Automatic annotation (TrEMBL):
UniProt name for this protein: Methylglyoxal synthase
UniProt-listed Pfam families: MGS (PF02142)
Domain MGS-like, residue spans: 1-141
Cellular component, GO annotation: cytosol
NCBIfam families: MGSA, PRK05234.1
GO MF annotation, one: methylglyoxal synthase activity
Catalytic activity from the UniProt record: dihydroxyacetone phosphate = methylglyoxal + phosphate
């Protein structure tokens, strides 16, 4: 089943996320990818994958992804955070993380977690999200 996956990386973690996206391109290609601006450009350039790009993080990109979570439209968030650099938009980052907890959305904040998540995605561990997707389809009917 096609999942909506958000990919976000702070500047010092972007190379790591790009390498991750290249390594797991064969998995990611079957899903809808969303990203903050600069991260999205880097991933699309490196992999050729189609990525829906929101604003850059400091300009509201985290909030836009948060808005999708608030609609229960995001199924997984891979957010490679830089814990050693202060971010001007720290409140936005905290809000995104908080919404993942509100909606029980799987959130990996580093490469180690993302490795586990991507294998889980591949073997269908996220299929419980069908219930949520199903509900949305019901609402449309
Ligand atoms: O700052 C970010 C997330 O908090 C990432 O934004 P960019 O992908 O635009 O660099």
């Amino acid at each position: 089943m096609k999942m909506n996956i958000a990919m976000i990386a702070h500047d010092k973690k972007k190379d790591e996320l790009v390498q991750f996206a290249m390594a797991y391109q064969h998995v990611l290609k079957d899903h809808c990818l969303y990203a903050t601006g600069t991260t999205g450009t880097r991933i699309a350039e490196a992999t050729g994958l189609s990525v829906h790009r929101f604003q850059s993080g400091p300009l509201g990109g985290d909030q836009q992804i948060g808005a999708m979570i608030a609609e229960n439209e995001m199924d997984m968030v891979l957010f490679f955070r830089d814990p050693l650099t202060a971010q001007p938009h720290e409140p936005d980052i905290m809000a995104l993380i908080r919404l993942c907890d509100v909606y029980a959305i799987p959130l990996a904040t580093n490469l180690g977690g993302a490795e586990i998540f991507i294998h889980g995605l591949e073997r269908g561990d996220l299929n419980w999200r069908k219930l949520v997707h199903g509900k949305e389809e019901d609402q449309i009917d």
